[in-house]
Specification:
The structure is a single chain. With 253 residues, the protein is an alpha/beta fold. Strands 3-2-1-4-5-6-7 form a seven-stranded parallel β-sheet, with helices on both faces. Helix 2 crosses helix 9, helix 4 packs parallel to helix 5 and helix 5 runs parallel beside helix 6. It is globular.
Length: 253
């Protein structure tokens, strides 16, 4: 492989990144683009600003607007993507969290979290994975969580959804690996994003979390992007059904 190829191992590949307008999704989209992929950001209005920012950096980036909390809209968009240009890489990043004690957790909150974090992941993965299986090549990476291993407090719907995507990932790896499709997860630890803004704004809680992380700091979106780009690239061709934890050592403590 030439030096140019080594620097752009995803050249000629087309990647769809959900929730790519900000945070972890944006960092993933940027790194995939830097490694040569043509990137499509899928999500709500924020994907337009994210795409424009990446275009100013010289990257080829498209957008698809979709409310992933709407199952019918998600199915329509998934089918349109599957019928369109080839998709080689799918990064299921979009996710929401609902914080409420389990005894009070609303049905609406539960349903919305599962619609985005689990059902939309499955809908897109099935629709785009089918083409990957038929072609004999593809990469699917879903963002899981430390709460794929732990329970957390006041986040029962989120924890349930993140446990579920790991089970789905392992099952699909079993079914699709022989067809040349890898299906993996990245499980972030505590990352400085909008989802953790409330925790970081609470001085006592922020300090307690940071002091428990062996690395001594909160993670950055770029920390997760590196793991996603690895799993989406040629060096991870024999990695399948795996949950790659990127947590600064949290689970080791």
């Amino acid at each position: 492989m030439s030096a140019v190829d080594a620097a752009r191992p995803l050249a000629g590949r087309r990647a769809v990144v959900t929730g790519g307008g900000a945070g972890i999704g944006f960092a993933c989209a940027r790194l995939l683009a830097e490694r040569g992929a043509e990137v499509v950001l899928l999500g709500r209005a924020s994907v337009e600003a994210g795409a424009e920012s990446l275009r100013t950096e010289g990257h080829a980036v498209g957008t698809v607007r979709c409310d992933l909390s709407d199952p019918d809209e998600t199915r329509r968009v998934a089918d349109e993507l599957a019928a369109g240009e080839r998709v080689d890489i799918l990064v299921n990043n979009a996710g929401i969290i609902h914080r409420e004690p389990a005894v009070d957790h609303s049905r609406e909150g539960w349903r919305r979290v599962l619609d985005v974090n689990l059902d939309a992941v499955w809908t897109l993965t099935q629709a785009l994975g089918r083409g990957m299986v038929e072609r004999g090549d593809g990469r699917i990476v879903t963002i899981a969580s430390l709460l794929s291993f732990q329970g957390g407090i006041n986040v029962v719907s989120y924890a349930a959804s993140k446990h579920a995507v790991v089970g789905m990932t392992k099952t699909l790896a079993n079914e699709w690996s022989a067809a040349g499709v890898t299906v993996n997860c990245v499980a972030p630890g505590y990352i400085a994003t909008d989802n953790t803004a409330a925790l970081r704004a609470d001085g006592k809680r922020e300090r307690e979390i940071r002091e428990r992380i062996p690395a001594g700091r909160w993670g950055e979106p770029s920390d997760i992007a590196g793991a996603v780009a690895f799993l989406a690239g040629p060096d991870a061709a024999y990695v399948n059904g795996h949950v790659l934890v990127v947590d600064g050592g949290w689970l080791a403590r």
